[in-house]
Amino acid sequence: MRWSLTLHVAVVLLVSAFAAGVVAVVLWLLLGRPLLPVAGALKPGEVYDGIKIALATVAGAGGVVALVVAYRRQHLNEVSEEREHGKYFADRFGAAADQLGADRPAVRMAGAYAMARLADEWLQERQTCIDVLCGYLRMPHVPDPPADEPGLTTWQREREIRKTVLRLIGTHLRDDSPESWQGYDLDFTGAVLDEADFRGARFTGGDIIFIKTLFVGHDRNQVIFDEVEFADGSYVYFRLAEFRSGTVRFDRAVFSGGWVTFDSTRFTGARVNFRDAAFSAGEVRFEDAEFSDGLVDFAGSAFTGTSVSFGEHRLESLHVTAPPARFTGGTVDLSRTATFTHPPRFGLHTAPEGLLLPPGTHMSHLP
């Protein structure tokens, strides 16, 4: 549509004339190359046929011009409608963002729902809407409730909004969600999570970032990854995260591919359950993790194919080595695993205090 109307019509007429010539030649060849009549005096019927051909040619040219004009008008209408459609979504995006930044908690809560609804409908900018919701969770938040009554009320209201945002995200990661957000990036860097339900979510692609995230619970089973699937194509980072208190559950989680890293993570007081989890493919890394308190429980888990590593790891591209996990007081309980055919890698000669292995298994038996 960058061409002028005159140029557009001229080009289409030339193309039409060329196409008509090609068709005429093809028909002449298909008809056996009939001889053309010798020139002479025109008969009345031939004159009438010539007039018909001329009129048909003029009508065809007029039709081509009309089609070009109609096409350009339709295109401009579609562009105008698309711009109006984009402006409509942009206005909704601005309104939802303003609500998320409002002073009143109820308005912020409405903004969370409005942004999630917009992400469902605005496919072209769905990632942007998701980024805004994750960005809200990255805003500073005090992990522990304040002692004074007004501060406690404000903290509880903000906590409810954050729980709502996490619930909206978790719901859209399940297979039964009408609008799936699976495969999109989620960035929770530095967020404080004290209650989140990702139960049944499927991480099928994209970067899921929990770097420097603080998991702190005030009741049992605050953060739930039960029956989550970490599938091929997903990259999940718990790097430098801290599991401080409460319970974080990965019960019946399936590690069927992808890459999940807990490197440099600190387990300083929380109970982290991997009960009945299935480690069948992909990589799970705990290099440089620190177990100083709390319990990491693998009861009933099956290690059948996933590369799980607590040992040092050579990063060839960076020419550095990630040190092995450190056991300085916490407990990693592998004593009740269901299947140990592909055990984790520790790279240690003796089991450190706090590492419980299945009966009959010695460190020398492990890679």
Protein architecture, described:
This protein is α/β, with parallel strands linked by helices and 367 residues long. The protein contains 5 helices and 22 strands. Strands 2, 3, 6, 7, 10, 11, 13, 15, 20, 21 and 22 form an 11-stranded parallel β-sheet that branches. Strands 1, 4, 5, 8, 9, 12, 14, 16 and 17 form a 9-stranded parallel β-sheet that branches. A two-stranded antiparallel ribbon has the order 18-19.
Report the radius of gyration as a whole number of Å: 34 Å
Number of strands: 22
What can be said about the biggest beta sheet?
11 strands, parallel
Number of helices: 5
End-to-end distance:
65 Å
Overall shape: elongated
Question: Structural class per helix/strand content?
Answer: alpha/beta
Question: What are the secondary-structure elements, in order, as H or E?
Answer: HHHHHEEEEEEEEEEEEEEEEEEEEEE
Q: DSSP strand (E) fraction? A: 15-25%
Short descriptors:
367 residues; alpha/beta; 11-stranded parallel beta sheet; 9-stranded parallel beta sheet; 37% helix; elongated
Task: Please outline the helices and strands.
Elements lengths: L4 H26 L13 H57 L4 H17 L4 H12 L11 H24 L13 E2 L4 E2 L2 E2 L4 E2 L2 E4 L4 E3 L6 E2 L4 E2 L3 E4 L4 E4 L1 E3 L4 E8 L4 E8 L4 E8 L4 E8 L4 E2 L3 E3 L3 E3 L4 E3 L3 E2 L3 E3 L21 E2 L11
Parallel strand pairs: 1-5, 2-6, 3-7, 4-8, 5-9, 6-10, 7-11, 8-12, 9-12, 10-13, 11-13, 12-14, 13-15, 14-16, 14-17, 15-20, 15-21, 21-22
Antiparallel strand pairs: 18-19
